[in-house]
Structures are given as structure tokens and as C-alpha cells.
Specification:
Elements (H helix, E strand, L loop, with lengths): L1 E5 L4 H11 L10 E6 L5 H13 L5 E7 L2 H4 L5 E4 L11 H22 L5 E4 L4 H10 L9 E3 L2 H15 L6 E2 L2 E3 L7 E3 L4 E2 L2 E2 L4 H13 L1 H9 L5 H16 L7 E6 L11 E9 L2 E4 L7 H23 L5
Parallel strand pairs: 1-2, 1-4, 2-3, 4-5, 5-6
Antiparallel strand pairs: 7-10, 8-9, 10-11, 12-13, 13-14
The protein binds 1,4-dihydronicotinamide adenine dinucleotide (NAI).
Protein name: Malate dehydrogenase
Function: Catalyzes the reversible oxidation of malate to oxaloacetate.
Family: Belongs to the LDH/MDH superfamily. MDH type 2 family.
Amino acid sequence: MRVTVTGAAGQIGYALLFRIASGAMLGADTRVDLRLLELPAAARAAEGIAMELQDCAFPTLGTVDVFDDAVPAFDGAEIALLVGSRPRGPGMERRDLLEANGGIFAPQGRALNAGAAADVRVLVVGNPANTNALIAAAHAPDIPAERFTAMTRLDHNRAVAQLAAHESVPVHQVSGVAIWGNHSATQYPDLTHTRVDGRPLGLDRGWYADEFIPTVAKRGAAIIEARGSSSAASAASAAIDHVRDWVAGTPGGEWTSAALPSDGSYGVPEGVVSSFPVRSVAGEWRIVPGLEIDAFSRERIDASVAELVEERNAVRELGLLG
Ligand code: NAI
């Protein structure tokens, strides 16, 4: 399969590429041809990574090519991991951030539209991920919008791990966790449908509201504070999980979380790229239907979705939705 990774020479790229090449994402029987897209200034660094990839002699790795132009980089892509983005600089307003990222994700959407496989799967990791996915999809009218997703799997994995630690159980015993809304501090990690070892969780509401939700939502900042740079290996691992489940299916009828264009489910306006509880069935993400949403959850989902609607309005005003 042809896999294009943008921001290949960045932190996440360095943690991601070797796992893709080793078969962790698409399995031991799938040969992967990697196409690394970088800014011209970082293309040389990407060449160095290509050399290291070659030196691993992974049986699953086919070719590795480096590009500084999106059009050839996405040509024939079956999977596109859009990691490179413009981070928020000092004093940068949200509008400037959205505009700068529009300058990246609009042309990348057009390049995907021009050359990617008709059934390409796109995962946007670069922040603001949900709105970047919306922008890219808007510039790729020939690709169904649902092929554009944004990553909330890291938030999901953080939520599962925090709960497992709190309950003193292994992570595999935790099911039914969901992330709703934006990949931002407003996200809502929902435990109201969660089961532990197959049994409904007796939810400690005080811990849930005062510790669990803020810990998950602010985990990225806590990692930066401790490590001196942002989460990279865990983000790369979540990207692998997202694509693996999308292609191979979520195991055992379980759900996970991913941000996709809303079909209007759960009161999320149609087209907004929001995180939902999802299953992957026959290679397609499907929003888990019919969950009961209590008043506590409703308020938090609505608050995060309101932020996404504001971001959509802002990029629409900037003319970034075409
Ligand atoms: P980084 O700064 O180490 O690397 C980003 C790379 O992207 C750089 O090498 C840069 O040259 C490249 N780049 C920038 N614009 C590009 C373009 N137009 N085309 C191709 N490459 C381009 O950043 P890092 O740590 O790898 O993070 C990447 C992004 O992922 C950031 O936006 C970060 O906020 C986001 N992120 C998202 C997470 C999520 O859960 N959705 C979790 C962690 C990070």
C-alpha cells in the first residue's frame, strides 16, 4: 500500500515511520511504499530518515521517497497521514493559526483530490486537527468527505489508561470509553457507557468531574511540562491504532474514538468534524448509534461542538472552505 506521511522529519514522524515500515499498522503481509512529504528546509532531514528506514531492512518495507511538493507526494496515496502543521507561535491569535493552517491543508486537499486513490484514507494529526481535516476535505470534492478523519485516538487511549489505573485493572478489561467533540481542552472523555471486565462501571462522579476529565483533557500540557516537548511516541502510536482499526476493523465489536464529519448524529451539526464513539466495519467508520446521553454529557458535548462550529465559521469567513 502506498502511504504518504507529511511532517515526516518532525518528532511524531520519527516515531511513526519506523512502526509503519515494520508492519505495525497494516500487518506483516502488506508491503508498504512510503512517501515522505516535508518542507524544503527539512527535506534533507527526511532523506536521513529514509536512509535509516532502509537500514532497518524491514521485510514489509518497499520503496521510500522524499518530496517537498504535495502533488507528487500524494500521487496514488491509499493512506495519507497529515502530521505536519503550523504550531501556534507566541502571541498568535486563533484566527492567524487557522489561516496559516489553511495555507497548508487547502493545497494538500487539492493535491489529494488530484492524485490520491479514490478510496484514500486520510488521518489528520496536525493541529488544530479537526478543522484542518474539514479544510482538506473541502478542497477535495471528488473524495467522499468521510474519508477525511482527525485523530482523537490519543485522547481515547489516555482515557482508557487513566481509568484502568484508577480501577487497578489491565487496559484490555476497559471498554465503552468515548471521546466527543474537538481535539482540544474542551474535549469530553465520556465514561458513562464504560464497562470494566464486562460489567458497568460504578462511576465515582466526584473523581470523574474533578480529576478524570481534566487529567485527560490536559494530558498534552502535562507531557510538555515534564518532557520539555510535546507527546510524540504516544501520538504516533495512536495514529497507528487509528489506521489499523480503520483498515482491519475494530476488534470484537468494541468501539474506539475518531473525529469524522458528522452525519447529524447526537445533535452535532452535519459536516462538522467531531469526535464520536465509532466502530470500523467493512473498512468504514460508523458512529455508534443510540447511546443515551445524560444531562452532564449533553452539556459537555455541546460545549466542545460549539467550539468546532466557531472554528468552522472562522475558516469559512477566511474563505478556506472553498
Ligand atoms: P514537529 O514540529 O516536530 O514536526 C512537524 C513537522 O512538520 C516539521 O518537520 C515541519 O517541517 C513539517 N511541516 C510543516 N509544514 C509542513 C507542510 N506544509 N508539509 C509538510 N511538512 C510540513 O511537530 P510534531 O511534534 O511532530 O507534531 C506535529 C503535529 O501534531 C502538531 O501540530 C501537533 O500539535 C500535532 N499533535 C496532534 C496530536 C493529536 O492527538 N491529534 C497529538 C500530538 C501532536
